[in-house]
Design a protein that fits this description.
globular, binds adenosine-5'-diphosphate, binds 2-acetamido-2-deoxy-1-O-phosphono-alpha-D-glucopyranose, alpha+beta, 11 strands, binds magnesium ion
Length: 367
């Protein structure tokens, strides 16, 4: 849909205030299409919104997904109000359609939602300093803590087996076997690296299955750019991108932030010499996350945190490599071999974490 059509749709279909003056592509998400909408009100003031086209190829049950978000944000808003916080800034607010629905489904099957823009905040695609990363950790830990009494059984599983590393491994092996676009020969080394770590893929799933660690309501996509940071205080004020809030493991939430934020290189860095796990950032995040969780993690979970970081990084490497082998059908790409570059950074990080394993365990011991 072109910009003019999107503007018209935004104004006609959603309960937004004022006239749509501007609309532009926004943010760096890999899944949805996000737009910033600027409206001019009668008194001359402007108001901003976020319009998102939800990826129906990836999310098969958008109604269930939106119900999750409506219910989770309503639950969080009550808690935010109870402690004197600002419910419009500390969690997402869905702007309903003019006919009172929480998202719009067009005749062509495309689905859109509108969110209130969280003002006076910014979002980071890379860690600027240790303090930012620590602050994001407190916010993700707090998110986990705030949802610890949320009724998990009422949540719809928006992507089945999302962080089931064993099933991700099976998908990866199938992609290798099928080799639909003849890329397998280019990545034999990376494939072998993953196959050599088959046992790691089972560790967290096994620990959940045996009851050693609990299933919790988790975010499941805890990248740094899924948190809004307050301009004034520098604190992580709002956890966004709630599409994958589902029952899961705290180890994956913790680990996903480490994989993305504690890396010294970007997720798609082409020079692998620049990619490693920064131990100062690792320690700062671990400290912040534990503080944010306020004692809600079990001893076993805490001891397994480094395993969470390693396993999710391996899983993400597998997911990027699977997509590369399947001709780039899942993640948005901006250049040739983008998914291959991404996969390689993840595997480089896994190797580096293995080298730093004792240091990582020592950090857990200290904290
Ligand atoms: P994706 O699933 O594609 O990652 P996100 O929901 O994370 O989509 O949104 C993409 C980006 O848009 C975010 O990283 C953030 O910069 C921005 N964004 C999303 N929601 C809001 C919001 N309510 N207020 C301000 N910015 C937002
Ligand atoms: C996707 O939507 P975004 O960009 O925040 C993906 C995550 C991956 C991440 C890798 C629904 O997250 O699982 O970890 O890319 N989201 C989905 O950068 O698959
Ligand atoms: Mg996102």
């Amino acid at each position: 849909m072109n910009v003019e059509k999107l503007k018209q749709m935004a104004e006609e279909k959603f309960s937004i205030l004022g006239k749509v003056e501007g609309l532009e592509v926004f943010g760096n998400g890999h899944i949805n299409d996000t737009y910033l909408v600027v409206c001019r009100m009668e008194d001359g003031m402007s108001r901003r919104y976020i319009l998102q086209h939800m990826n129906g190829e990836i999310f098969k049950n958008i109604q269930g997904l939106m119900e999750n978000i409506v219910n989770v944000t309503a639950f969080l808003k009550k808690k935010i109000i109870a402690v004197g916080g600002d419910p419009m800034r500390e969690t997402l607010t869905i702007i309903p359609t003019r006919d009172g629905r929480n998202y719009l489904e067009n005749e062509d099957g495309s689905s859109f939602r509108m969110l209130a823009f969280i003002e006076d905040t910014f979002c980071l695609d890379a860690v600027r300093n240790t303090q930012d990363f620590y602050n994001s950790a407190v916010a993700f830990g707090n998110f986990q803590y705030s949802l610890s009494d949320y009724p998990a059984e009422t949540l719809c599983e928006t992507i089945p087996n999302f962080h089931n590393t064993v099933s991700r491994l099976a998908d990866f092996k199938k992609a290798v076997e099928e080799d639909v676009c003849g890329r397998r020969k280019i990545v034999e080394k990376e494939i072998q690296f993953i196959l050599d770590r088959e046992a790691d893929c089972h560790v967290i799933c096994d620990a959940i299955a045996s009851g050693e660690i609990p299933l919790r309501v988790t975010h499941n996509d805890t990248k740094l750019n899924n948190i809004m940071i307050d301009n004034r205080t520098g604190k992580g004020i709002c956890v966004i991108d709630l599409d994958t809030v589902m029952p899961g493991s705290a180890l994956y939430d913790y680990g996903d932030s480490i994989r993305f934020g504690a890396s010294t290189g970007a997720e798609d860095e082409q020079n692998l010499d620049l990619v490693s796990c920064d131990m100062e950032l690792f320690e700062a995040y671990t400290k912040g996350f534990l503080e944010g969780c306020r004692g809600s993690l079990t001893k076993t979970e805490i001891q397994m945190l480094p395993m969470g970081a390693k396993v999710i990084t391996l899983e993400q490497g597998m997911r990027f490599l699977t997509d590369y082998l399947q001709n780039d059908v899942y993640y948005k790409i901006q250049r040739e071999n983008h998914n291959l570059d991404r996969a390689r950074t993840q595997l480089k990080l896994v190797a580096d974490m293995e080298e730093k394993w004792d240091q990582m365990m020592a950090v857990i011991g200290r904290l």
